[in-house]
Amino acid sequence: MKAVLVVADGLGGRPTDWSGQTCLEAAATPHMDALAARGALGLVDPIGPGVRPGSDTAHLSLLGYDPHVVYTGRGVFECLGVDMDVRPGDICFRANLATVLDTDHGLRVADRRAGRIETGHDELEKALNGIRLKRTPDIEVIFRASTQHRGALILRGPGLSTHVTEADSHRVDALLLDVCPTDSDPASARTAAAINDFTRLSYEVLHDLPLNRRRLAAGKPPANIVLVRGASTRPNLPSIESIYGVRGAVIAGGALYRGVALTCGMKPIDVPGATGGLDTDLMAKARAAVGVLDRLDYVFVHVKGTDNAGHDRNATAKLQFIERMDAELIGPIVSGIDHGSTHLAITGDHTTPIDYGDHTVEPVPIVYAGPNVVCDRTSAFGEREAGRGGLGRWSGRVLPILFGYCNWAPKYGS
Amino acid sequence: MKAVLVVADGLGGRPTDWSGQTCLEAAATPHMDALAARGALGLVDPIGPGVRPGSDTAHLSLLGYDPHVVYTGRGVFECLGVDMDVRPGDICFRANLATVLDTDHGLRVADRRAGRIETGHDELEKALNGIRLKRTPDIEVIFRASTQHRGALILRGPGLSTHVTEADSHRVDALLLDVCPTDSDPASARTAAAINDFTRLSYEVLHDLPLNRRRLAAGKPPANIVLVRGASTRPNLPSIESIYGVRGAVIAGGALYRGVALTCGMKPIDVPGATGGLDTDLMAKARAAVGVLDRLDYVFVHVKGTDNAGHDRNATAKLQFIERMDAELIGPIVSGIDHGSTHLAITGDHTTPIDYGDHTVEPVPIVYAGPNVVCDRTSAFGEREAGRGGLGRWSGRVLPILFGYCNWAPKYGS
Hints:
homodimer; Alkaline Phosphatase, subunit A; 2 domains; 8-stranded mixed β-sheet; 15 helices; 34% helix; globular
């Protein structure tokens, strides 16, 4: 048996998305519809009914872990996702390259994403990794840039804590926020001081960088500060292999998803052209996914474009990405697998409706297909069809159910 | 109000079981179909979505208990199921009468079930209960035979523990396994030593028994050793009567199911001819079930044949047993009850598909019927129909829902 899990980030939507239909319903998706016809549909609450999921917590839950038990924060997945070496005691952060203006009242956030900066990451990394904290010189700072404005940061040293507020207020035009400890222990105060020190030093080393002078000259916002959030340590998870006895790989352009999957023990497959954006090379991902199954038991493919378009409130972009996903990812995967011995699941990690531009609480549609799936009467993949699907509605655990069809699940009890 | 719960072990299946249908779908089940037509269907995950159930954990969950909280292991249900007196501190085991060969390398398991031995249980019991442990003479050993190769064992004495590995490796042709402590406390080491002592002594007292000499002469595998597993103590459960204020009985040929029901406070009803196998006297069970309702509030009827046929990968046997169950158990029960004041539920404790021959993770179909059930549009009892049933999909708690229809459920909150 082999298994394929495809998660389209933010796949689900609302009827307002596209002429009264959701983007998924309005999109032409012949390959996913064919899977619906020979498989079965249902609705999944990624974490639980009425719980509005983050992407990290949702993925943990879909992969079979209880995020209420194992989730430590986002940062560690970002760090693992860009192949940083996360050690016990390390405090990990998601880091944004951002733009601040130096005003009379202090540094003011002008762009949380530094114009989604595309180049110059090496120069930024080098400058940031040269930083030595002044008040806490025994704490090492390690920065790695990811795609666009995204990066990851590790604080390494004795006596650190995750109990600190976020440096990124998620607001534009606000003054730079001081990070505060959220616990009264010395480690939390020390960690907050270290982050505040780092944030200000990042402005000092970045604002006059040749890269940023060129960006200013070109009318682009400079990447002149780093804003961190999601303080976390490495979570304590049993690996998927230790639970099910099978080995698999992750194909994901986004560091966060790659990081979650690595934490669960999946092998990362790097696909050139997999950008984690709307322009990602879906055919290359499909080829890689089918190739993985030659040597491993399962593959988890993540695509991010659906969510990006939802956050951008761009219904056309979301619909077109779904159609491209159907044609260039699902079609080639379905053609490349052995139908008699492969089970497949396609779902989202949450809904990102166009009208709201962020994650919402609704359940997401899911389709399972393969030889052991009891087929239902649905024949199209969409929110409404999933609501009358034969699998009903449940919470999380999409991968354990997929593995159950493959006869890989351990028995609980006797 | 009265209530009837029928659990057909391993009832559910997969589309591969029978010409693209499951055995339940392919079987002619007019009585269950009529219940579907006047009642409502749904899908139950016996323990939770994507959790592959054991029979003991699944039954606890269906009866309204959280197995993650109350389950202590299988052995105690086997002991209670054969009416052994389980006391605080007793360590209970499921015990298999098995066949080993004495080889140069040690005792090798030849048949885990001693040819499903049908006779001579008194002789085996007497020999085994005469065993006195050598290294731990203060530990008493009590053995009771059940049906065929099945039995139950209690270790009674000071300083015992459930933290030991299993003597039954579930593999044939393997050398006899030494039981090891899984905790570092002296009680676990002492318990492991006692089991290893008992296992070897069981071979000493059994291998030359007249019964086994006769079996060898007849070409049958001797019951020359006892292999134990499922170490457990009596779980701490509130009785069904203490929760709902109603009293009921269990009718089950298999000791395990009888034991689970006794643990929950049900009264056991012994029905001659109820074998816990494919040959069980279903009409006798139906008569007994209807009779119970004259004097008690509810009855739980367990049939095992569906699961046996699934484990044996025998689609014809499973289909025929389901048809016989419909005609000889469900039909007579439906005829014998007062429809205006009785609620009825029929489900399985897990799926046992023919192609896999063991429990799988899929949800099981369920039908509820009775005066307070909101009827849906289904008209047949099967996996696909249950997937479009009016009750949707949920986890466990089949008995509390049945009792809810009877207006027996306690209010949580005010």
